[in-house]
Amino acid sequence: MKYGMAESKKHEIDIDGRRVALTNLDKALFPSGFTKGQVIDFYIRISNYLLPHIQSRPITLKRCPGGAQAGCFYEKDAPRHRPDWLRTFDVPRREHGVIRYVVLDDLPSLVWAANAANLEIHPFLHRVPEIDQPTSVVFDLDPGEGAGILTCARVAFLLKDALAQGGLEAWAKVSGSKGIQIYVPLNTPVTYAETQPFAKVLAERLEAEHPDLVIAAMAKAKRVNKVLIDWSQNSDFKTTVAVYSLRAGRDEPYVSMPVAWDELERAIARRNSASLYWTPDAALKRLSKVGDLFQLVLTQQQKLPALTFSAA
User: Fold this and answer.
1) Helix, strand or coil for residue 236?
2) Which of 2, 10, 163, 302 could cross-link to 23 by cystine, CB 3.0-4.6 Å?
3) By the 8 A CB rule, do 125 and 196 touch?
4) Is 2's pLDDT higher than 90?
5) Using an 8 Å Cβ cutoff, are 255 and 174 in contact?
6) Bridge partner list, 97
7) Whether the Cβ atoms of residue 244 and residue 154 lie closer than 8 Å to each other
8) In this predicted model, what pLDDT tens digit does every residue of 31-62 receive, in sequence order?
9) pLDDT of the residue at 219
10) pLDDT tens per residue across span 235-276
11) Is 210 helix (H, G, I), strand (E, B) or coil?
C-alpha cells in the first residue's frame, strides 16, 4: 500500500481489523520532501523485518510533528490521545509513579506511531514483563569531532576481537546517523547488574589498549578524533534506536541497518563512508536481496563469560 499521494484531510483505514486514523499525508517531514505518507509507507513495507526486533519491548518515541529538523522530542509516556487497542506497559519511575510506555507489537500500532510523526523507534533491551532482563549487550560507538563512521568501524573490529576472546559473537548495525552499534545477543537469563559492568570494563580495557582511538568516558571535550564506546546503554532506563528505524536530523532520511563484517572491512579499505548509509528505498531493496542480517540477534543464545575483562 502506498501513502505518498497528496492527501491532507483525515481519514481512517482498516489494518488487520483495527481502524487507524491517517492525517496530513502530504506534509513534508524532511527537507528533501519526504512526506509523512512516505514515512508510513516505509514502516508498512519494512514491518515484517522490524516488528520481530521490537516485539514486547517498551518504546520511547521520537516525534517530529514539525519535521525532522524542527523541534523533535522524545516521548516516554504514551500520548493521551491514543486508540484504546494500543498496547502499553507501566514501568515504575525511579522517584515515584509509573511511565506508561507504548509497545508496538503489530502493524496497526506501527502505523499509528508513524501517523503521530514518530520518525524514530527506540526500544529497550528487555521485553515486558521482565524489565530487568536484557536480551543483548549493546555498545554504542559515537564518533567525536574529527572522527566519523569509518573510525567507528575500526573500533567495531577491536570490540569484535575482544568479545571473541570471551567466546562471544557480535553483530553490527549502522545507526543511520554518525555511529555504529554492536549487539551481543544473549537470550539467556541475565540482568543489567551483570551486563553493564561487563560492557564498562571491556570499554575501559579497549581505551587503555588504544588511547589514541577509543574513549570510555562521556565528556565530549575528550572525544576529539576518538570514538566513545558508550557502555551505559546497558541500563533498564536507556533505549537504543531500533534496527530498521528511520533517523531524523538530516535533509533526507536514512535507516539504521545491519551490516556484515566484511562490508565494514571493505568500507574501511576503500575509505567509503557512503556505502554505510541507506535511504528508505535502498534499505528495502537491500532487504529483498540479503534478508534480515540481524535475525540471529533474536535467537542466538550466549552467556557472559565468567571472567571479568581486565583493563590492565
Assistant:
1) coil
2) 10
3) no
4) no
5) no
6) none
7) no
8) 999 999 999 999 999 999 999 999 999 999 99
9) 74
10) 999 999 999 999 998 899 999 999 999 999 999 999 999 999
11) coil
178, 148 in Cβ contact below 8 A? yes
In the chain, ranges of CATH 3.90.920.10 domains = 11-123
Q: What secondary structure letter does DSSP report for 226?
A: S
How far CA 303 is from CA of 60, 124, 199, 229, 262, in Å, comes to 28, 19, 13, 21, 25
Give me the residue label for grid cell 509513579. Answer: 97
DSSP 59-90: EEEEE-TT-TTS--EEE-SPPSS--TTS-EEE
CA–CA dist 82, 88 (Å, integer):
10
CATH 1.20.1640.10 fits 11-123, yes or no: no
Q: What is residue 9's predicted lDDT score, i.e. its pLDDT?
A: 67
Rounded Cα–Cα distance for residues 222 and 235 (Å):
23
What mean pLDDT, rounded, does the chain reach?
Answer: 93
Reading the block at residue 271, the C-alpha cell is: 575509505
pLDDT (0 to 100) of residue 311: 42
Architecture of the domain delimited by 136-237+244-298: 2-Layer Sandwich (3.30)
Cell numbers linked to 50: 522490524
Sequence-distant (6+) residues with CB within 8 A of 191 are 132, 133, 134
- DSSP category for residue 309: -
What pLDDT does residue 307 have? Answer: 52
Which amino acid is present at 146? Answer: G
- CB under 8 Å to 134, separation ≥6 — which residues? 124, 125, 126, 186, 190, 191, 192, 195, 234
User: Which positions ≥6 away from 179 have C-beta within 8 Å?
Assistant: 140, 141, 142, 143, 149, 152, 227
**All CATH 3.30.70.3300 domain ranges in the chain, comma separated:** 136-237+244-298
- Residue of 56, 138, 145, 131 whose CA lies nearest to 99: 131
Cα 22 to Cα 155: distance, rounded to the nearest angstrom: 43
**Could you give the CA distance from residue 247 to residue 140 in angstroms, rounded to a whole number?**
15
